[in-house]
Amino acid sequence: MSKQRAGVFIAFEGGDGAGKSTQAGRLAAELETRGYTVRRTREPGGTPVGEKLRSLVLDHGNGEIDAHTEALIFAASRAAHASQVIRPALGRGEIVLTDRYIDSSVAYQGAGRGLGQDAVKSLNDWATSGLQPHLTVLLDVDPRLGRSRRTAGEAAEDRLESEADDFHARIRKAFLDLAASRPGSYLVLPADLPVDELTARILARVDVLLAAPVPSFTVPAGHGTDGAGS
Q1: What are the helix (H) ranges across 34-116?
Q2: 162 lies in which domain range?
Q3: Within a domain: residue 219?
Q4: Which residues fall within 8 angstroms of residue 52, CB to CB, at 6 or more apart?
Q5: Per-residue pLDDT reduced to its tens digit, 171-212
Q6: 13 φ, ψ to 5°?
Q7: Domain-located, residue 222
């Protein structure tokens, strides 16, 4: 029988090549062996419309996509993701693990594209009706390491991955600034740690989260809480 409780929302963030998907998969596997119901998902994507938008905004060959259009595409995908996938799963008491969430737009479009972090955050808070993770795992990766991982073997970089190193440096700083602004809601780990050590440290932090009463996930950011209802 599955263990069920209030839904828990965990986001994995970091630059391209940080190892988010690997660690989310490892965490999901461990939690499932313990009897939890886990929903793994990703952004952009997670829904049929989100996956179409993912291809549009990340694949090469779709023509020019200016910064504002890019930000709105990500926000549209996230709106569907929050409404159709994340909130229903939390309502069923599941543990939701997402590979990227709002912080990625704040970092990539807000800082990387220069649209302004506050403006992009406000757009995405509106798109998700204020839905924020209980915990964000930030894997901090040096842009040069990230690129070497992305281009290993025959892998090809997508539209955003192929941007210059200074773009990825701005993104890295934005992620770290976001974590520093609400340290209680983040676990920041160097992405170059051994894979097993990263897994162990993430699991230890998640165990603390699961042992505590889970706060509401419905309170919008800036309404008297840190955005996660805690």
Answers
A1: 48-58, 67-81, 87-91, 102-105
A2: 12-211
A3: no
A4: none
A5: 999 999 999 999 999 999 999 999 999 999 999 999 999 998
A6: -130, 165
A7: no
pLDDT in tens, 108-162: 999 999 999 999 999 999 999 999 999 999 999 987 776 666 666 666 666 677 6
Domain with 22 in it: what CATH number?
Answer: 3.40.50.300
DSSP-assigned letter for residue 16: T
Cα–Cα distance, 223 to 92 (Å, whole number): 25
Identify whether the C-beta of residue 169 lies closer than 8 Å to the C-beta of residue 145: no
Nearest to 10 by CA among 98, 89, 84, 128: 98
Burial 183-217 (b: 16+ CB within 10 A, else e): eebbbbbebeeeeeebbeebeebbeeebeeebeeb
**Domain annotation covers residue 225:** no
The angle subtended at Cα 96 by Cα 135 and Cα 75, nearest 5°, is 80
Structure tokens at 58: 């990340």
Which contiguous run of DSSP H or E holds residue 150? Answer: helix 143-150
pLDDT over threshold 60, residue 33: yes
Structure-token pair, residue 165? 């190193």
41-81 residue pLDDT tens: 999 999 999 988 987 777 767 778 899 999 999 999 999 99
Q: How many CA atoms lie within 13 A of 42 on its CB side?
A: 10
E strand spans, the chain: 8-13, 38-42, 95-99, 135-140, 186-190
Name the phi and psi angles at 12, rounded to 5.
-105, 125
pTM of the prediction? 0.86
CA dihedral sign, ordered 27, 32, 36, 38: positive
